[in-house]
Amino acid sequence: MSLLFAIIALMKKLVIAEKPSVGREIARNLGCFQKEKGYTEGPDYVVTWALGHLVELAEPQHYSESYKRWSLKTLPMLPEHLDQVVIEESKEQFDIISSLLSRSDISSVVIATDAGREGELVARWILKLSGYTGKAERLWISSQTEKAIKEGFENLRPASDYDNLYHAAECRAAADWYVGMNVTRALTCYYDAKLSSGRVQTPTLALMTAREDEIESFEGKYYYSARGDFGLFSASYYPEDNTVRFTDDALSEEFASWKDRKGKVVRLTSEEKSDTVPQAYDLTELQRDANIMLGFSAKETLDTLQRLYEVHKIVTYPRTDSRYITQDIVPTLPERIRALSATIFSRQVDEYLQSGFRSDNPRFVNDSLVSDHHAIIPTEEIVRTEKLSSDELKLWQLIALRFLEVIGEDYIYKTTVCDIDVDGKLFRTRLTLPVKKGYRSAAESAGLKSASLLTDDGDNNFALMTLKESDEVTLSSVKIRKNVTNPPERYTDATLLSAMEHVGRFVDDDKLKANLGGGLGTPATRADMIEKLVQNRYVEREGKYFVPTAKGREVVRLAPEVLRSPELTGVWEGRLEKIAKGKEDPELFIKDIKKMASDLVREVERSDKVFSPKFKDTKKCPYCNSDMMKAVEADGSVHYICQRLSCQYEEKEVKVKVATGASSEKKFTTDASGKVRVVISRKSSVKIPKAVYETKTVVVRESKHAYKRDRRNDEERRPAANRFSSSDFGGGTMADFFRISQERNKERSSRRK
Questions:
Q1: For residue 76, cis peptide bond before it (omega within 30 degrees of 0)
Q2: What does DSSP assign to residue 565?
Q3: 186 neighbors 140 (Cβ within 8 angstroms)
Q4: How much is the pLDDT for 3?
Q5: Cβ atoms 329, 337 nearer than 8 A
Q6: How far apart are the first and last CA of the chain?
Q7: pTM for this entry
Q8: Integer Cα distance of 540 and 518 in angstroms
Q9: Which of 267, 271, 460, 542 has its CA 20 to 30 A from that of 193?
Q10: Pairing mode of beta strands 136-138, 106-112
């Protein structure tokens, strides 16, 4: 019996985190200090980590040799079951985890990956491919503080409690594979163009192409607005109660002639109003505000936020879709406030700690509106701002300020509205004065601008304080402005993220609208999806705006209709939610997905459309004569890409330094005083630079047609200048380059013999 107890005492638990930084922090809190490659070990625990996903679904060729070649004949691809494979780039870390799982002293596993659907999938697939079938527990926490980690390990739950969540995650991955792989291949093969499509990518792109269509079809209309000068104050003309716009040319001319007209105050009302505190941040709202206030892209915000969470541990879990906290977090609020004491928020912190703060606001504390993770708020970790980079500090200040605003009181203000009648025309102005600053004092005391402040709707004409009803006033003149209506604005990171989050407003069906409560994609994947659209050259960034390319617009036009709409995500999310709750059979869901994939392939094959992008500033492909897409790279070089899958020719214009042959001589002479002087003489009186830069075209990718033609025909079609790589341009003439090419050809021929 004593031997048994001794063996048990030597057994350890293996903890699997999602990232190295999280794993190291958990290890530190569990007393694991023996660092090894890929893991850290202690007396009771071994802590290792994934690198995000270590396992993925296998590519089509894994199931059949016929799938290696992209062809309509092999579609649809519907393997009975989808297999998982280790990602080659991270195979070393997978092997480390797999070997740890097979150690005889490992008694059980603690899944400590991100608490959510995708985090569950990361760990379960590792365990599945490692063949592990032993005991497993689940750590479910929302921050990486010492307190949260210790409490989490004191309240571990059986991993089986999350089996349905795992099934939902697997179904999501499988559905995206069956639909995405099949439709992408169908579009690419049928239209002979490199096209891709998916249930999140395509409707997101469709939002931007639809906006571009609206902009192009927009016809601006003129309208007027009028502002009256009453001496100590000014007021706007209101043709109707809620608008200052009018289109009557005659009225505009009449106002221009008005001078020193008498008017009367017909209404003077004062009302006390309130502006409720803003809500805490979820990831999407933070990305939106960071784009507006700081100019960060969605990806930049997520990456910076991840460092604040993992490295500095001063904010809670980033990838959340909730703007609320649960009741059990409320007792920790004083400690979280106190952690901000040594920052620019110290004045507001002192006030809250001395006078109290609001912790019962249902717009902030609501258990029913928190699923996997609560809102993004500061942790109890003491903040050392000097350790933060500039971007980290700016983003952290947004989060900390919003947190302090959320626990503040409503902003109370008094607004006075004054209506003046001048010859039957209504002019209106107003004055807004604060009564109780409430949550707005947090930004003011820190000297920051709050992202939550509403645009002031008052003219702040303090002269109104001296007026009363029936007073006579004099309108000295009227200033007329002629304006034109603006087209809809293109999407920015901020507005696109909002559209993706609230995509339900683009759907008419109430049930689907409800299922789209989570929006397109997840808070964690939206930034990457936007970047993927840019990398695929479906959209381009012009300043802060996204502009769909001709290729992107074609993708939307040619994609099956069901993929262009967010409704598909609404349907899927509704069913995945049921699977996660154990209310739907996963196998039935996958069966329906396979049928959908098959139907979508047939829909593409029956299409009578043609891939015909309207490229601007294009040039013809020297092989297939189709229009090539022009792309300007980050370094300013111009890239031309043939879009035909059967061709795939690419070329780039590059600047090449070419020697001119100019030279100069230095001569040393001694003048009468004995000083040595340097005289530079040139062979020509004309100043010639030693080198100049020429624009040359280099081949980035050869056309597939090049390998199917006779070499002589090939040389006739292609300009000789195009046959050299950028490394060949070290100076010299075209004759030199041609000579080098012939020598290479002779050398290759001799090798063959």
A1: yes
A2: S
A3: no
A4: 44
A5: no
A6: 79
A7: 0.78
A8: 26
A9: 542
A10: parallel
What is the dihedral sign for C-alpha 479, 480, 485, 490?
Answer: negative
Tokens 């080198």 belong to residue: 691
DSSP 6-21: HHHHH-EEEEEESSHH
Residue type, 731: G
> Residue 317 catalytic?
yes
**Other Cβ atoms closer than 10 A to 719:** 10
Rounded Cα gap, residues 379 and 339, in angstroms:
8
Q: Find tokens 């645009």 and name the residue.
A: 455
User: Rounded distance, CA 304 to CA 306, Å?
Assistant: 5
DSSP 196: -
Burial 461-477 (b: 16+ CB within 10 A, else e): beebeebeeeeebebee
Phi and psi, residue 115, nearest 5°? -80, 90
Reading the block at residue 32, the tokens are 């694991």
Structure tokens that stand for 71 in this block: 């062809």
Displacement of CA 412 from its chain's centroid (Å): 36
Spot the catalytic one: 67, 237, 238, 317: 317
DSSP string, 608-634: --------SS--B-TTT-PBEEEEE-T
How far apart CA 626 and CA 610 sit, in angstroms, is 13
Task: Name, in order, each residue with C-beta under 8 angstroms of 43's C-beta and a sequence gap of 6 or more.
Answer: 12, 31
Tokens 């606001």, residue? 361
Does residue 494 contact residue 280 with C-beta atoms inside 8 Å? no
Distance CA 333, CA 182 (A): 50
According to the model, what pLDDT value does residue 17 have? 95
The per-residue pLDDT for range 4-34, each reduced to its tens digit, is: 444 555 799 999 999 888 898 899 999 999 9
239-242 long-range contacts, CB within 8 A, separation 24+: none
**Buried/exposed code over 398-413 (b: 16+ C-beta within 10 A; e: otherwise):** bbbbbbbbbbbbbbeb
Query: What amino acid is encoded at 447 in this protein?
Result: G
pLDDT in tens, 217-248: 999 999 999 999 999 899 999 999 889 999 99
What token pair was written down for 116?
């959510």
Separation of alpha carbons 227 and 255, rounded Å:
10
Q: Which residues of the chain have pLDDT under 70?
A: 1-9, 454-460, 512-513, 515-518, 660-691, 708-753
What's the pLDDT at 735?
Answer: 45
